[in-house]
Known about the structure:
Layout: H1 2-9, H2 13-33, H3 43-78, H4 82-85, H5 90-115, H6 117-127, H7 142-159, H8 163-179, H9 188-194, H10 201-205, H11 225-230, H12 252-255, H13 258-263
Amino acid sequence: MNEILQFFAQISTETRSGFLIGGLALLLFMESSIPFLKMEYKKLDHAVINIVFTFITLIVNLFGAMGIMAAVRYNQIHNTGLLNMIEIPIWLNVILGFALMDLVGAWLIHWIQHSIKWMWKFHLIHHTDPNVDVTSGLRHHPGENIFRLCFTTLAVLISGASFGLVMMYQTISVFFAHLTHANIQVPKKINKIIAYVFVTPNFHKVHHHYVQPHTDSNYGNIFSIWDHIFGTVKKLDITRELVYGIDTHMKSHEHSSIKNLLMIPFQPYRSPVESKFNNKR
Length: 281
């Protein structure tokens, strides 16, 4: 286990990029072989928009890595963070570190963005995608990337995770972002078992249904256990009822223009059906 953590502590940008591209290629192949939905859309045009946002995400994350490294160093110098305060076997250290990183750095900020109006307006860009597929995983507004980096840094400070553990989590997290959005079939029996602990494509599809209350559910990134614990799991017959997108931005020029997507957070708020926000907030 120490060797694995050391590998990720020294992992190069090129190697991480290789993991990303390899994972994307595998999932694209699976989408063409075992698609869940036969969606009629211009896949290349759709992919270009999402890949632009993916590159923006990766660039922001490169700068954000400095903050994460600073948090790791702070914990090392001051012996702070939960994992630095207790003596446990390395395998348990990794599991606990993964859990805390996922809870604070992914689930919590995701839930908050659905709960605070001005933050939701940034996260909204992710939900406008009417054809969710493997390229949708990192379709995030630059503003949202900053929110997520802040909470990732907070997760490091709370957990005391080593730099190797953080990089391992981040690498697996990116793969899950693409996996859980992939348009692939997952056998119902297998999905039912796995989804008690891990986020599956079927579990996450409910989150991308275009209307409430399903939009505000199934927030998990890697682990679905947080949704089970906090009661945020919703179910939907995805074979019959699923419609991707968000009901306030269903017109093509609103969800298929990079310029408009970047400007959505600064446009007047649109209240969806069964909105949790009122127009005065």
